[in-house]
Amino acid sequence: MLKKFLSIVSVAAVAAAVAMPSAQAKETVNVGVCVSWPGYAMLEVARQKNLIPDYDLNITIFEDPLGGHSALAAGQVDVYGCTADYVPLTVDRGTDVVNVAFMNPSYGVDHIILAPETEAPNLAGKKVSAPQAYIGHLLMGLWLDSQGITPDQVEWVNLNADEAVGPMLSRDLSAAYMYEPWISKVLEAMPGARSVVNTADPAMLKTGIFMDSLFMNKKFIAEKRAAAIAVLKARWDGLGYWHENVEETNQLIAEFLQWPVEDVGFVIGTNGKSFEGGIYMYDFDESARVCGVLEGEPPFALANGSMADVVSLTNDWWIKLGLMENRIDAAKGIDCSLMGDLVASGYRQSFTAN
Description:
Blueprint: H1 2-19, E1 27-33, H2 42-48, E2 55-61, H3 65-73, E3 79-83, H4 87-92, E4 97-107, E5 111-114, E6 127-129, H5 135-146, E7 155-157, H6 161-169, E8 175-178, H7 182-189, E9 194-198, H8 202-205, E10 211-217, H9 218-223, H10 225-244, H11 246-257, H12 261-268, E11 278-279, H13 284-291, H14 307-320, H15 337-344
Parallel strand pairs: 1-2, 1-3, 6-7, 6-8
Antiparallel strand pairs: 3-10, 4-10, 4-11, 5-8, 5-9
């Protein structure tokens, strides 16, 4: 009897499927996030709040920036959020990847900590630490340069912030790149240690180097341009939702990243715009101005259309720091036409802190 019943149900289900028009499946866009970081979470906001209804966003957190870039270059992901300091490297390696928008600069997250009784002019020949090929490497190089010290005059140690705490406390390092909570741990345990520069300093902000950006695969743009534009718009629609619903959205982001919600606030803030000591979120208009597709001046003394200049400056510093040999054509690493299409369509977004 049960067998007969299942047979009838099966026939009925097939008949119903034939009789009813099938719902059109959404096109999937594969999105990569290089590390768990609130600044990269706005497409998840857009996904959860149905701000991109015609597409299904499949979002993967890599926790491996280089692995994510490899996946993007191979076309395994279409869109990728990561730091802009990779742009010269993508051009140098000839990958099918472009940076389509700057999203947010570091606004005091990143610091250089100097050991007690150490003065900048005396650092020549001393050990300094920073994670090689990351933002900290650039910050240390720029700060040393501002003190008249060239990269080859110090002994570099390849350490991330957490790894540098012990060597700093044992006085094996004279200076180290750090971020919280490691800054506070060192300053509390080491009287006389001090922060000498951070990414909220005007001189660092105006370089534009310390920036998170959105990358896309060139083939994805060429073959699915409508989808690429929709994703770009959705990223800023997600940001706009956060601005209007900060507490709710910070909780959403915390659950997505598996972070305490308080820590999310200490990165992107609770005012819908920025957190000093965290990051500053470009609204769409600010990002479009850096791309040079909308009139007006971007924040922090950057020039309109300065994205290529920022990439060139980053390239110069990777050469100075010994990580690159070639000077690249920065224009090959960026594509502002998608931002331009959104501007031409009338899309705008401008807001300040709540």
